[in-house]
Design a protein that fits this description.
With 460 residues, the protein is α/β, with parallel strands linked by helices. The protein has 18 helices and 19 strands. Helix 5 runs parallel beside helix 7. The chain is globular, with a radius of gyration of 22 Å. Monomer. It is found in: Cytoplasm.
Length: 460
């Protein structure tokens, strides 16, 4: 198994600092508490003029049991009765959003995340889909992208058949690791057969795309143990793989306090796991989209990257760039027009706002012109692994090299170190630079100095 490119471990270590994942720019740390529901309503109304298709994200926070690595906004409960009032609140939120949106706009993308969306019963899933369709009008187009995150421990072949009937055409299965020792250490016992059965059924039913989530850097993982997991996963032939870097932040995420730091792989071993992962997946025919995403060449993510239409949002990489994103549910974030708006992360606060017939907007930000320029630069670099300054200048009617002179100066050392090349006004990340794309993107972030500290995970 040969490395797909020259590997410089010393260079990676030098640039392996902490930094944002850039699911948005400005990042959530810049969201303001004085951003109001009225600000969000105005952005919704403005968005109608652009006529973009809609993307709906539904956050379902419930999980039946905690996974020790979790860094998501979740509520642990065995009581499925909690789902009913939550669905009613989601419907109330839809009712409050709808007057400000032209609902003739196609819902081209739908994503249910969490938490564990399969916490809902089949009837509850049907109820929620019916409400979404009644409020927004769901799409039946072949190129729609309707995805749901699934815990294989809580789903079976009947679940998949029901999801297909509801209109979902893409699945994301949480796997994390197939090693029983690692599974035990993170409180997620999940025999391989559970995942295989669902993959086989999804293939039989003709789901357009299937993603598997893995995590590297978990307790007791080694390069050899993770290679064994990868070998088994490659044999399952998913269209996409998300291989996340575990960020151990127990002071921020309470479940992680159950993980002992001494059980985690050291920095050298973790880099070796990453190196093994890239080599094995490249050899198996996957394209490294960027950061933690891999896809087969014919998958929509890979095709979108080729066409420079890939987008990055709070669900990762998306092939639907030209959409306004409406987030529904506790902690959900919307990206509408020139605004980000976030709902409360507390279920009580979310419910209280809706019970008072108020949109549950807790905080957000309206982007300045400078924010929009830098968001464009960061997003294109993160998605295309390249940045065309001439194109950026055309979009914003500016002299891009002069406007972004401070960012280009910050990239001079990475350029000398072989992480990025510049030919005229065209920047391209090298293979090593692609691994450190977050660091390269940080050069364009003028808000970053305000948030230095333990807020961000390490890049690798």
């Amino acid at each position: 198994m040969a490395d797909p490119f020259a590997w410089d471990e010393a260079l990676l270590r030098r640039y392996d600092t902490s930094g944002p994942r850039y699911a948005s720019y400005p990042t959530a740390l810049s969201f303001r508490d004085d951003f109001s529901a009225q600000d969000y309503q105005a952005a919704l109304a403005r968005s109608n003029g652009g006529g973009k298709s809609l993307s709906l994200y539904i956050h379902i926070p419930f999980c039946r049991q905690p996974c020790s690595y979790c860094a998501c906004n979740t509520i642990m409960t065995q009581d499925t009765r909690l789902a009913e009032p939550y669905i009613s609140r989601l419907d109330r939120e839809m009712v409050l959003v709808k007057p400000y949106l032209d609902t003739r706009r196609e819902v081209a993308q739908l994503h249910w995340g969490g938490g564990t969306p399969t916490f809902f019963s089949l009837d509850q899933m049907s109820d929620l889909i019916d409400r979404l369709d009644a409020r927004f009008g769901l799409s039946g187009a072949r190129d729609r992208d309707y995805a749901i995150e699934i815990d294989p421990r809580e789903a079976d072949v009947f679940t998949l058949r029901h999801l297909q009937a509801l209109g979902f055409n893409r699945l994301s299965l949480g796997v994390q690791d197939l090693d029983p020792k690692v599974q035990s250490a993170v409180n997620r016992i999940q025999p391989r057969i559970l995942t295989e059965v669902l993959i086989d059924e999804a293939d039989r039913l003709g789901f357009r795309s299937l993603n598997l989530d893995l995590i590297y850097g978990l307790p007791f993982q080694t390069r050899d143990s993770f290679a064994d997991t990868l070998k088994q996963v490659i044999a399952m032939a998913p269209a996409r793989l998300s291989i996340f870097n575990y960020a151990h932040l127990p002071n921020r995420f309470r479940p992680q306090q159950h993980i002992r730091e001494e059980d985690l792989p050291g920095a050298e071993e973790k880099l070796a796991i990453l190196r093994t992962t890239i080599a094995m997946l490249t050899e198996a025919g996957y394209i490294h989209i960027g950061m933690d995403h891999f896809a087969r060449p014919n998958d929509s993510l890979a095709l979108a990257q080729q066409q420079n239409t890939l987008q990055r949002n709070f669900q990762g990489y998306s092939s639907h760039a030209e959409c306004d994103l409406v987030g529904l549910g506790v902690s959900a974030i919307s990206r509408i027009d020139d605004v980000y708006a976030q709902n409360p992360i507390s279920l009580d606060a979310y419910e209280s706002a809706l019970d008072a017939s108020r949109l549950p907007t807790a905080r957000g930000i309206r982007l300045t012109f400078d924010d929009q320029v830098r968001r464009y630069a960061i997003e294109r670099l993160m998605c295309d692994m390249a940045l065309d300054l001439d194109r950026l200048g055309e979009v914003f009617a500016i002299d891009a090299p002069r406007y972004l002179a401070n960012a280009l100066a910050r990239l001079e050392q990475p350029e000398r170190d072989g992480l990025i090349t510049r030919q005229g006004n065209h920047l391209v990340a090298t293979p090593m630079g692609r691994l450190l794309i977050r660091h390269l993107a940080m050069a364009f972030d003028d808000r970053l100095p305000r948030h230095k500290g333990p807020h961000y995970s390490r890049i690798l």
